């Protein structure tokens, strides 16, 4: 039986979007916080957010102005579901997502392992008039390196 290299918790090191000319942008800024978890049971979960999201003026969990809520969502993404590995792709079968359009979809990611790092690359996608590819570098979390 082959060991599943994905299993465990991963900390986001970088999240870059690259266009066809190689121009790089950072959708949540250069300082992005994220964790990706793959379980032995075939389920996964990911959370990514801008490092310095403004707090709501209210401490009420369901409070916050419409503008505060919109800004919070613009700087955050998460989804979860099951996953499967096919050749050099990991496919996330999305069951729940902050972005409702992803629920029930398959999010395909090309992968490459290097020591304690995992590079996930998205297929190209169109945003406005640009064709982009996401490049997410993850570092395996260990008990001695949890931050």
If you had to describe this structure to a student in words, what would you say it looks like?
The chain has 147 residues and is mainly β. The chain has a single domain, classed as Lipocalin (Beta Barrel). 6% of the residues lie in helices and 52% in strands. The chain has an 8-stranded antiparallel β-barrel with strand order 1-3-4-5-6-7-8-10. The radius of gyration is 16 Å and the shape is globular.
List keywords for this structure.
single chain, 1 helix, 147 residues, mainly beta, Lipocalin
CATH class: Mainly Beta
SS element count, helices: 1
Shape: globular
**How many β-strands, per DSSP?**
10
Number of domains: 1
Overall pLDDT level: 93
Beta-strand portion reads: over 45%
Q: Name the poorly predicted regions.
A: none
Q: Could you give the distance between the termini?
A: 32 Å
In which range does the helix fraction lie? under 10%
Classify the fold: give the CATH topology.
Answer: Lipocalin
Query: Which structural class best describes the helix and strand composition?
Result: mainly beta
CATH architecture, by name, is: Beta Barrel
**CA-atom Rg in angstroms:** 16 Å
Main β-sheet, in a few words? 8 strands, antiparallel, barrel
- Taken in chain order, the helices and strands follow as EEEEHEEEEEE
List the helices and strands and how they pair.
Elements: E1 8-19, E2 24-25, E3 32-38, E4 43-50, H1 66-74, E5 76-86, E6 89-97, E7 106-114, E8 117-121, E9 125-127, E10 130-140
Antiparallel strand pairs: 1-2, 1-3, 1-10, 3-4, 4-5, 5-6, 6-7, 7-8, 8-10, 9-10
